[in-house]
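fyi for ur records
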Amino acid sequence: MTSRRVVVTGMGAVSAAGVGANLLWQAARDGKPCIGPLDVRQPYGGRITISAQVRDFDIAARVGPQLAPFCDAFTAYALAAADEALAQAGLDPEERQGPRCAALLGTGIGGMKTVDDGLYTVYVGNKRPETLAVPKLIPSAGPAMLSMRYGATGPCFALASACSSGSQAIGLAMQMIRAGMIDRAIVGGSEACATNGTMRAWEGLRVLTPDICRPFAKNRNGMVLGEGAGMFVLEAEDAARARGAEPLAVLAGYGTNSDALDPVRPDAASGAACMAMALEDAGLAPADIDYVNAHGTATVANDATEAQGLNLAFGAHCDHLLVSSTKPVHGHALGAAGALELVVSIMALREQIAPPNLNTEIQDPNCQIRLVGPQAVKTEIRAVLSNSLAFGGINASLIVTPYPAA
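which gave:
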């Protein structure tokens, strides 16, 4: 615990719902899936032909002609979302943020579209990749471009921890602000992985559904790959108040740990311990959480394990705890998943609405949790926990509470 509270003063999103945090929230709240036919640039022979892609996104128009040549889609998504976050935070995009501002970005893979295009050019076209392929594809391209765009000369780096990348980046930024290393962070997660090679690789793992994402359902058969970026302006409360900012929420708690057991199979006890760490960090009891935005990938192993972890972490309160996964709407955006879902979590807190858990006609008896159901629920929400449970056993949980405190 620390006396230096961290607040969210702005947020933005690019997702299959479009460009804008409100579009993402409206789709999640209203239960409107943004999943459609897969659209890739190279010839595709895969079995899985659906994805939650970002569509009709003009990189040059969004980031400008000077930065566009250096931007893979994952970087461009992060910049567009960050532009929205800074505008909401009331920060001048032309003002240099300086050494007390960090630029951190979580991404599972980085510039996969550039990688895919380059490999196709080399192996099929027998030509060299584009000149700027290397500075575009490296994961650090995202935070580097964020730092350049906003003049953030403080810490700048990428975090790559699979599906926990975005949540870990946000949690680490919070800790850096608490510790006094910085006063502000431009932080989130971004991913652009709907490519030929990526789709075939995930298909090989047999975790993609060919039809519908059904979190916690008895007949679930996999996830839908998604794309996008969620970006936030985090600030020390005193710094935000000094400039007259109006916080959206308090980033109250963060927990992270590792199963240290298996590359792909999650562990319920470790997931529960991660949630307990976030609760302790926030100074909250299990009964203080009213809604959980679950990792909920709709894969057989993940959903049952996460449900077990929730029961271990929340005990008897699990019977009263509303839970939903919003991945049937925006897909599983890998390194951006936790960031997109934190946008949804903050909006759920602000509007006092728990978004629905779609497509679960018959709940798996091995998933003994209280799902929201097919329609959003208006209810009192005092605190929200958002889970990210990644390959490699890397877990991260974030907790947000209202501002000002009730």
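The domain at 6-242 is CATH 3.40.47.10 (Peroxisomal Thiolase; Chain A, domain 1). thats all i got for now
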